[in-house]
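Lecture 7, part B: from sequences to assemblies.

Below are the input chains for today's worked example.
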Amino acid sequence: MRSVSEVRLTPVICPFCGFGCKLYVRSIDGVPAGIEFYDKGGVNEGKLCPKGVAAVDFLRHPERLRKPLRRVGERGEGRFKEISWSEAIKEVATRLKEIKKVFGAESVGFLSSARCTNEENYLMQKLARLYGSGNIDHCARLCHSATVAGLIKCLGAGAQSSPFTDILKTRVILVWGYNPAETHPLLMRYVLKAKDLGAKLIVVDPRRTRTARFADIHLQIRPGTDIALANAMMNVIISNDLYDRDFIVRRTEGFEELKKLVMKYTPKYAEEVTGVTAALIDEAARTFASAGRGVIMWAMGLTQHTVGTYNVVALADLALLCGYVGREGCGVYPMRGQNNVQGACDMGALVEFLPGYRPAAAEEKRKEVAKLWGVDELPEPGLTVVEMVNEAGSGRIKAMYIMGENPVVSDPNTSHVIKALNNLEFLVVQDIFLTETAAYADIVLPAAAYAEKEGSLTSSERRVQWSFKAAEPPGEARPDWVILSSVARELGLKGFNYSSPEDILREINAVVPQYRGITPERLKSSPEGVFWPCPSEGHPGTMRLYEERFLTCNGKAKLVGVEHREPAEKPDREYPLILTTVRVVGQYHTLTMTGRSLSLVRRWPEPYVEVNPEDARRYGVSDGDEVYVVTRRGRYKCKVKVTSSIREGVVAIPWHWGANILTIDALDPTCKIPEYKVCACRIERVGGG
Amino acid sequence: MPKIDPKLCIGCRACSNACPSNAIVIKDDLIQGTRSIVLDLSHCIGCRACGEVCIKDAIEFIEEIELVSLSMGNLTEEVTLKLAKCPICGNFSEFTEKQIEEAKKALTDLPGEFIEEIMKYLPLCRKCRRRYLLMNASELSLLKFMLKAF
Amino acid sequence: MGKKIILIDLSRCIGCRACEVACEKFNGASKITVFELEDVLTMPLNCRHCEKAPCISICPTDALYTDEDGAVLLSPLKCIGCMMCAIVCPFGIPEFDELNKVMMKCDLCRDRRAMGLLPACVATCPTDALVYGDVNEVLPRKREYVAQKAIILSKEVGDVLLK
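Predicted structure of the full complex, as structure tokens:
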């Protein structure tokens, strides 16, 4: 007798960007079959972008990892043999123990993942720290570490200050180095609604992006000159007495120093540096400061510079100067690119922070967490993502445990990363597909993807939501938290006996003060989720930060003046163009997921380089030509797209298809973010010339 | 056995779609700008499906065929029609000139001004027709045009 | 029941093509297409389900008809694939399905409407550039929008003339 198929709609959180969209996964007898639009509210009101609509495509892809693998061929060759789970876990634990004995625990690097749930990130950093290694980091380093470093300096916390609904109440929106129309299409919903209500939109971007088409003022800046522009805007605001004097006196400090510094940056001077006319800078500054309520949003275009931290500081200054923080309809919005990058930072999967943003460098904080975990002490902060890779190259890092990340494609200077991975004694990769990085691993562990496990995720606006299990993982793939706890138990570490993600979340409630009231029961029953900080179970959650005090030691925000500094690599005779990396709406990061959806690949099939018509004429290329884009680090073949939307002297490549072979690995000295957004390049026609 | 009347045939390929034995094949030559409808009698099973669907009644059925030649080549009939050339992009479109003439004749029960509007774009290929909406119309007139279409 | 339409609001389209992907996911092949006029605007276009549809009036086999919501539907059993509908369609909407030798076109998500859901493209559109509703509710909104656009356009033109 055949039973009737069971069709279920399960609410999950979209696995792509950090906006936190809710959708249903339709599953038939535990097999994901499609999506349905969420009908009970949520930040996206049921709407989805193309990636979200295609979100189940990769779940049952034939290339999904189904069994643990052991490498039999050379590194990178991709020849593997299937092994059993017990064998795989035992081998990982044994090798890690050996390496600890011979080289010490600090020779092992752990990479956590912004794609995994809060629970799994918490486990990963707990595993690393209890194992004795301070080298725990994840890809927030490559996107928003500058934001965290910069905002903590000025405001005291590195998170988005207000919910997205505040955008609807604002009067001016300043979008800086960010293209929501392609990055977060759902945010454009809020921006356009705000525009309907009369808000002005100012966009700062070297390209006339789809977002800039909707802008009232578009400042087409030369890449890498953000500070000069921000300082000039502050100059206009201060000289014309447009700043919020009351707010500055009451809630900030350092105004006089800032004033002294920005007085040098006249719009005239900034015009020379940034390439934006003084009149336009003046207009933008006046529009921004006189609106009364304003928000600032930024993303990779601002942070991925050697001055990333200072860029963020400059924008925070701008917001503080106008008093656009801690009020309704105001706020700073660092836009997150991954569904749980905020959560991974909260959980302490960062070198410098223990769970709950306790500074890992402070001994008493380490002691505090050690006590909660029932051990004597925790290791000091170690190396960041890029440093780990560098040290792997030089031989100080002997082994790495990578969960759900693909540094071969995502990190700058690809060939350097490959060399470093080849140099490792032991590499474990835990992922849903055999990624470019996994091809170099000794052991590959198959993980369950987003809809195949449960857990909580924290979106860009600090909204913690529960994602339910909609389908069974393929083959023998297991949820990351199951794998991590078995590895930890095999390593002989205490405190890894969890029976469900809820268990782990309860421990997080106890360890992370911001999450104290965010219990699993509460999350599961609330379709809208809970905003952290939420100090107790009865607390409604905090939608808006800094309403009464800033999270700095004395409760006052700090205005910090920063000087403009040129990018690490400037165009010269040999490499006359500036290369910047961008993204397209239908592809996501390193293509591990979206590259396996036919619907998306059909529409966004291949990389291209955007070239201004003037530059195209100068270098003798035309639309559709195949060219090599060449930098000091490598060459990259792609097609030319001639468009007037990009500035003269600048070319842009979407990075999904591996364009990081070109980018420079120069780092911001404060937060170690690499400068993806500016390097010097030239274009060569394929076949000489 | 079917026989296509080249005077009546407009080259719509309905017969080819209907034929279960692939006896009628459509060949478009986008360089010369011609469409050939090739009927191969050696494949024909005599089901008369082509005649049933033909919108111009261009297919008649003859009881017997006279074998004039012994070579198989003469068992094929071919009708060649001109494809319409798009006045905007200059490429040949996927319609024949006669199909468009037929469309003009057939569209009689719509209001006059609407037909006038339709006549303007009828010669365009479909790609340009869509593009035409974007390129040749200002946003406003495009909207007006679309408003009319409801 | 009144006629239902999908209103396309060009001024809100961000060109993300979510409608295309959604249509493909729910209907097998995408019957809505986003056109881009380089650097100026993007515009989704699907069957407009015209009230006096030229495709219906020309179809030699009466394969095209309207349902109770006013959607123009195609009956694949009646269609002979003669492409006359494609010729007369102002938007070039009906496509030839090579596999089944019939035409295919947008059916305003008949199955989803039957379940009380919005058409997939409208359900997904992140910026509400696509709005589905009764013609009597949506059209006044559209007229208002066209009028507003006209004012803005005439202002812009006026500005240019004054300069």
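Note for the exam: Chain A has a mean pLDDT of 93. Keep this in mind when comparing with the next example.
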